[in-house]
Specification:
Blueprint (H helix, E strand, L loop, with lengths): L1 H26 L1 H9 L8 H21 L8 H53 L3 H4 L4
Helix pairs in contact: 1-2, 2-4, 3-4
Length: 138
């Protein structure tokens, strides 16, 4: 009975995590970028996408510094900076991961092409008539 309760609890937890992930993908624009970067077509844009977020984070930090005296920062500025900082780090992480995934995909493609070329040359060697056949067959 305990095992059944544990299995049911794990199923409910997995279901809840799935819905949280789906909800976050629907809500957050950077999650859309994260999803796009995970595709084969979007892998090459991983590092290019993280730079604008880092620049926006730096600009928000500069805005906080120049807006009044020390300690009198507006809460919305700090929240904006924190959001941009989080997004910049998330996209930078995905940028590095996308480079690794792209290298892995290119290596797999190269390896498959190499195996295909070897198999093709082996088939051609097997189909090529031998020296004995060219001389009239011995």
């Amino acid at each position: 009975m305990v095992a059944l309760a544990v299995i049911a609890g794990m199923w409910v937890a997995a279901w809840a995590v799935t819905w949280v992930r789906v909800l976050l993908r629907v809500i957050g624009p950077t999650n859309w970028l994260d999803t796009y970067i995970h595709t084969r077509r979007g892998m090459r844009w991983g590092l290019a996408i993280c730079w604008p977020a880092a620049v926006a984070c730096a600009m928000a930090g500069h805005l906080i510094e120049v807006s009044g005296t020390r300690g009198e920062y507006a809460t919305w500025q700090i929240l904006l900076w924190a959001l941009l900082w989080y997004d910049a780090l998330k996209l930078a992480r995905m940028g590095v991961v996308s480079v690794v995934l792209l290298i892995r995909a290119r290596f797999r493609k190269w390896h498959q092409a190499r195996e295909w070329r070897q198999a093709r040359s082996a088939r051609r060697e097997a189909e090529r008539p031998g020296v004995e056949d060219a001389l009239g067959g011995t």
